[in-house]
Each structure stands twice: as C-alpha cells, then as structure tokens.
Design goal:
Number of strands: 3
Radius of gyration: 40 Å
Strand order of the largest sheet: 1-3-2
CATH class of one domain: Mainly Alpha
Strand content: under 5%
Oligomer: single chain
Largest sheet: 3 strands, mixed
Helix content: over 70%
CATH topology of one domain: Helix Hairpins
Number of helices: 5
Shape: rod-shaped
Structural class: mainly alpha
CATH architecture of one domain: Orthogonal Bundle
Length: 257
C-alpha cells in the first residue's frame, strides 16, 4: 500500500527589529519620491477639475438660456396670434353693429369690441415685456458663450500641460509603486497601519526620520542621550515623544555624520 508524506511548510522567518526599521525607511524613501513626483504636477489636477466643473456649469447655463429664449419666442408668437384674433373679432363686431335690431345688441357689441381692445393692449404689454426679457437673455447667452470659449481654451491648455508632466513621470511612478507594493507585503500589517497613520498626520509626509544633531529629524526637538543610544542599538522601535514619528539612527539611513 502506497503512503504519502505530508508536506511540511517551512515557517516564515520573522524580521528582526533592524530589518523592520530598514524596510520602513526604504518604504518611506520611495513614498517621498512619489510625493515629489506629485509635487511636480502641483495644483494642476485640481485646476483641471475646477475648470471642468466650470465648463459643465456654463454649458448647463447656456442650455437653460436657450430653453428660456425659445419659450419667450413661443409666448411672443402666441400673443401676436391673440392680437390678430382680437382684431378680427373687432372687425366682425363692427360689421354686426350695422345690422343690429336694437340698442341692447349695439351696446353688447360695443362692450365686446372694448374688451377685445383691452386684450390687444394687454398682449402688446406682454410682448414688450417678453421682448425686453428676450434681449436680456440673449445678451447673457452671448456673454456666457464667450466665457465658455475662454474656459475651454484654459482647460485644454491645463490638460495638455498636465498630460505632458504625467507622461514624463508615469513610468517612474509606476516603477516606484510596484516597489511599494512589494515592500508593503513584507511588513507586519499592524506596523504598516501605524506607519500609514503617522505618515498621514505628518505635515511633510515623513513617518520615519533619522536623528540629526541630537534631535528628531521630523520635529527637531532634542532627543535625550539614552534614547539616542536605544535608537542606535535597533532592539526596539522607538517613536519621538513629541511628534510620534519612528526614529532611526543616521547609519541605518545611510547618512554619514
């Protein structure tokens, strides 16, 4: 009877404190380089987004103006038709007055003619109002179109500038991000979470700093000699009591003082 041997998995070797610190510093160095690339782009991505929002807003405004002008033109046509109808009725009533049989019919027709005359006056008033409104909307439409053209030109310019910068740095950024993924996979999850939290809260994005002139390389507060010695021994992870950044000695950072 054949027997099979169970596969024995080799336990993963746990990183030493020094290796953890080295990995964190290397991660910090790469992320700082990515930050530098982002800085090259500056405020361009935000400017492009703002311009895109402005262009979209102007296009909506222009469409609203066009719709309002079309409605005004429809109302103008309707009022002109009402005036024509009222005039026809007045002519009709005038001809009927020539054939009335009594004063009551004559007065009735006179009142109807007076009513139609008032309707014509009201329609003419509305036409004047619509005409003024249409003129205002047309002027605003023209102004908005002019602004839109300027904004579109700015947007194209900013997009082109941003695309050029992205094209120049994309390959480097992708290479660096691949390194980041590889490093992150080897760092203890809890330590990595703490690193990200410190980096997020740090003004300059530095979560790991080395001691410079007896002071923290992040906040520049003085570090007691005993703590400096502990950092240099690399037996445990030590953070600055002032800013919370992880501290390493210059030698581990590759710096010769």
């Amino acid at each position: 009877m054949a027997t099979t041997k169970a596969k024995v998995e080799t336990p993963t070797k746990e990183m030493t404190v020094e290796e953890k610190l080295q990995a964190l510093f290397e991660l910090q160095t790469i992320l700082s380089e990515i930050d530098r690339i982002k800085t090259l782009r500056g405020e361009l991505p935000l400017e492009v987004q703002d311009l895109e929002d402005e262009v979209a807003g102007l296009e909506t405004r222009i469409q609203n103006y066009k719709t309002e002008i079309e409605e005004i033109e429809t109302n103008l046509s309707a009022k002109k038709i009402e005036i024509a109808g009222a005039k026809d009725l007045i002519e009709k009533y005038k001809s009927q007055q020539d054939n009335v049989r009594n004063n009551r019919e004559f007065d009735f027709l006179s009142k109807e003619m007076e009513f139609q005359t008032l309707e014509i006056e009201l329609c003419e008033k509305r036409i004047r109002e619509f005409t003024v409104t249409a003129k205002t909307k047309t002027d605003e439409l023209a102004a908005s179109k002019e602004i839109l053209e300027d904004k579109k030109a700015d947007l194209e310019s900013k997009k082109s500038e941003l695309d050029d910068i992205v094209a120049e740095t994309k390959q480097d950024e992708e290479r660096l991000r691949n390194k980041v993924k590889k490093l992150e996979s080897n760092i203890d999850p809890r330590l990595h979470t703490a690193f990200k939290r410190i980096r997020k809260n740090a003004r300059n994005g530095l979560a790991v700093v080395y001691i410079q002139r007896d002071a923290c390389g992040g906040c520049f507060n003085k570090i007691p000699p005993q703590k400096q010695m502990d950092v240099k021994l690399r037996k445990k992870i030590i953070v600055c009591e002032y800013c919370g950044r992880v501290m390493i000695d210059p030698e581990l950072a590759g710096v010769v003082e």
